[in-house]
Amino acid sequence: MSHPRLGAWTQPILALVVGTQSAPGSLEDVVAAAFRNGADWLQLRDRQVEARAFLDWALPLARAARQAAGPRPTAILVNRRSDVARAIGADGVHLGFDALSSKEARAFLGDRALVGVSTHYKDEIDPALLPGADYVHFAPVFAPLSKPAEREPAGLEGLAAACSRGLPVLAQGGIAATNAASAIGCGAHGVAVTGAITEAKDPGAATAQLRAALDSA
Questions:
Q1: I need a labelling partner for 184 at 20 to 30 A (CA). Which of 56, 148, 162, 196 fits?
Q2: Angle CA(194)–CA(197)–CA(200) in degrees, nearest 5?
Q3: CA-CA distance, 10 to 106, in Å (whole number)?
Q4: Closest by alpha carbon to 50, among 81, 73, 28?
């Protein structure tokens, strides 16, 4: 599904979602390796730190992603914190249940920002209920790789139903190189991953495998 603010990405989107506990080594190195090998979006997520500490953590990661990607289109998204997104010059915000509404975030960040929303059930995906949203995450499709499952995975049938609801969908939860193409085959606009990259022995190689799987879908 096309969308005016997603038009820079003609291939399926590969979004890397990271928090302060995402990798045992240097997270900047992991991010750089991912963006050298085909990651498109970086979503920065942490619910534990105050705004100043979040800024100090997020800025070098955003810089690492942009430098490693070179001229390729990239987007830096901040989870939940629209104020931090504006402060670091991010490309947008990704919202959960405890954040601004999509309408409020759009008004705060302006027309050029990307605004995404986390969803878990297909009925939550409705452009009329999410004014201002450009896309949604739909999770979990499979059992997550980076944390215990909190909900029953929707599977590919559930993902296909979510993708029919009128907003571009990024599939999340248990996505790896072995099933990423199947997610795109269900109609997903891309995938969002954490453990498939951050917990890999070689994050760059893991990203390249994901990128190849997505591009072949």
A1: 148
A2: 125
A3: 24
A4: 81
